[in-house]
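### Sample
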Amino acid sequence: MSFYDAEVSPMVLMCDSGPTRPLVAPKTLHHLKAVPRNVHWGYFDASLAPALIVESGDLIQAEALTHHAGDDPTLLMDEAMHAIWSAIPEADRHPGVHLMTGPIHVRDARPGDMLEVRYLAMTPRFRYGSNLAAHWGQLYTELGERERVTIYDLDAATNTAQALYAYDVHEKYLTPGRITDCPECDRQPALAGLRVPVRPHLGTAGVAPDVLGRVSTIPPGLHGGNIDNWRIGAGATMYYKVQVDGALFSIGDPHISQGDGEISGTAIEASLDVLFQVILRRDFTFRSPLLETPEHFIVHGFGDSLDVAAKEASLDMLSLLRETGLSSDDAYSLLSVSGDLGVTQVVDGTVGAHMKIQRDILPHARKS
C-alpha cells in the first residue's frame, strides 16, 4: 500500500490551526514533564533509557523547553527549569545545544517502520521569547562580529509578538543554556511599532539514529533532528523513518516564530507545551522526514550546501509523486510548474531545503 492509499479512522480532532487530517482514535493520554530524569541535553542516543513508553495511537502532552531561556531568566525560566539547569552540568550538554524531552519508546516499533507524529496543539509556557543574532548566523561577519539578544513579548489576543528590548552580548554564546544577568545588561529599544505573527512550532524533533553513542542535535538528518521548518506546528503531521527498536522519539528547540532561513542563527526561542499523537505505520515507507499540512506535502533535503540540499529535496518529492502513478517525466514537469522549492535554514552547519506541493492537485492524495 502506498502513502497516499493508507486508510484512517473518520474521527477528526480540532487543533489550534484548524482540523487536522482524520485521526486514529486515541488510546491513552500521557503527561511527560520536563524534569531532569526526562530530558537529555544536546544529543540523540539510541542507548538512552526511555522517559516514557507508549502504544501506537497514544496521545502525549509533553513539555518542550528552550535552551535560550537564560537570555532573560526572569521572564523565561521558572523553578522547574532552574532545577534542570542545576541538575545537568555544562560539561554534559554536548555535542549539540538543544534541551530535548524524551525519549519516548513506542511499543513494537522496529527499524524500517514509519512513525507518524500528529502535532495537535502547541501552547507557549510564558509570554516571552528570545532571538539571538549569533556567531553562527549568516551575517555575523557582515554585521561587525557581535551577538545581540532581542526579547519578544507575546500578545495572545492578536497572536503576534513585538520586541520588548534588546541588548548586545560581549561573550560568544558557547555554553548551551548560558544565563545572562539581564537586569544589569544594557537594554535598548528595538523594532518599535512592529509586530510579527506568532506560529509556534518545534525546531528539533526526531527518532534516535542507529549510531553508537551521542549524535548532535545541531544538524538535521534522515532521523529528523534540527529541521527548523516553521510549518511543523499544530495541525501538521510528520513522518519519521524508525531507525532503532522503539523509535526513541524526542522533542525540543521550541519556537514561537521563525522565517525561512533562520538567518540570524535562531528563531524566537520560547518554551512550549506540546500535544501530539504517535502512530506506528508499516503500510508505507519514505526515506526522509516527510511533512503533511492541511494544504501541502513537504519534503526535506539536507547537505553541506544549498545545491545538495535542494537536489535531495527535489529527488524525494519526485519519489513521492511517483507514488500517485505519475511517470518520472510527468512528475518532473509537475515539480517545475507547481512545486515550490525553498530554503529551510542556512545556519545549522548542515543546511536545509524543502520542496512543497499542494495536496489538492494530486489525484490520489488523501483528503483531510
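The longest strand covers residues 114-124. This sample (Acetamidase/formamidase family protein) is used throughout the tutorial notebook.
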